[in-house]
Design goal:
This protein has 462 residues and is α/β, with parallel strands linked by helices. It has 20 helices and 15 strands. The protein has a 7-stranded parallel β-sheet with strand order 3-2-1-4-5-8-9, sandwiched between helices. Strands 12-11-10-13-14-15 form a 6-stranded parallel β-sheet, sandwiched between helices. The structure holds 2-acetamido-2-deoxy-beta-D-glucopyranose (2 copies). The site of one 2-acetamido-2-deoxy-beta-D-glucopyranose has 5 residues, from helix 20. Pfam families: UDPGT (PF00201). Belongs to the UDP-glycosyltransferase family. It comes from Sesamum indicum.
Length: 462
Amino acid sequence: MAPAARTDPIMTCHVVAVPYPGRGHVNPMMNLCKLLTNSKPDLLITVVVTEEWLGIIGSEEKPPGICFASIPNVLPSELVRASDMPTFVGATQTKMEEPFELLLDRLDAPVNFIIADTFLYWAVEVGKRRNIPVASLWPMPASVFSVFYHFDLLERNGHHPFELSERGEERVEYIPGIPSIRLADTPSLAHMKDQRLLRLVRRIFPNVSKAQYLLISSIFELEPQVIEALKQEFSFPVHTFGPAIPYFNLRKATSFLTSQNDHDHHYFEWLNSQPPCSVLYVSLGSFLSVSSAQMDEFADGLRESGVRFLWVARGEATRLQERCGDVGRVVPWCEQLKVLCHSSVGGFWTHCGWNSTMEAIFAGVPVIAFPLTMDQTTIRKHVVEDWKMGWDAKKGLEAGNLLRSARIAELVKKLMDLECVERKEIAARAKELQKVTLQAVSEGGSSKANLTSFLDDIASFS
Ligand SMILES: *[C@@H]1O[C@H](CO)[C@@H](O)[C@H](O)[C@H]1NC(C)=O
Ligand SMILES: *[C@@H]1O[C@H](CO)[C@@H](O)[C@H](O)[C@H]1NC(C)=O
């Protein structure tokens, strides 16, 4: 596709943003770009995505300062990504750099600044060769960065990756900024017997120190120690700008109901008719899905619990709706942040994706943590141990075993029992963290201040 960068004379500064081609990366990058152009409307941002991603997000509503340009997919089909992560990650490391550079040459407006996902570590080299400053965007908690960045410490201390699953309860107390963490709570990549993916991911970190900025989609107040530790580590600014969720869209909430199609309307009408704090929202993530045996346990558990629920279950919605009766609704998709912010919603069963967790905090909703993979195990630790806004559904559950419906029903009933003391505690914590988050994005708050400082710097390069 021909790059669409405009040569509007008012556009003083041209930023090229390049996300890693995965949902948990593209979303925070897009949200960062929206935050930047919201604060500085004369900024021009060209977001470089693969053709596959252009197809997914190309038609979404976006501010006038943002345009897309595309490069070829790294692999022939999306199927490959789900079934063979190492091959896909490897391809993002070797197949994107050249087309990216060719594209830079074809853009109409000269490029003043590059924002690249940390996983696309080659972008730092591109910037260096062309004398363009690069900000590396880390779209996960700072703690996960610190674990990977200091992975050699784990090895030196005899915590070899492949053993982590057997020694899960052992605690590690030497990772900078992380006073104590169970090995089971380190990112799940580190537990895999097959270490190809771990090796590929570790490869990205040495390049971070060659960037000019590190941007983290977290909130300073959520993990102050580890962010301070990272600031010590690098000689350039480390900024937090979270939550990288589309909260700025909520202001348009009134136009929302009228603009939705009938199907979406339906679950919102249903939510409107439920008592306050009575609905459990359930989402187990987008593409790294759960086995259908586990899905069935969920359906049975939800039915047994008797609680009202809204469950987003993609392709399996119809089958699961039949299985779990009519106390709740199973939908293929929903606008998660708006659902979580709805007054009828009182709890969230989550896979602990970073995006989902930030949305839970933004909405001030207590959670049950059911991490599946990647950084979700570490986020579970934050939710349960550090922030105390949720419970761990996997506590005591042996790896590979199904979480049974009886246990699911028990947890769900407890979370939705507004009189339960333990529930009151985590709900109060969720509300406190909500305040912290709202503060961070307000005038003078940490995320707002960091973003402003970053924007000033970008402008100085034009
Ligand atoms: C993550 O964020 C995007 C928008 O940034 C949103 O559409 C999506 O529902 C969120 N949640 C998940 C689980 O992807
Ligand atoms: C970024 O936020 C942190 C935490 O509030 C603060 O200490 C730091 O000074 C901020 N940096 C800038 C450049 O505003």
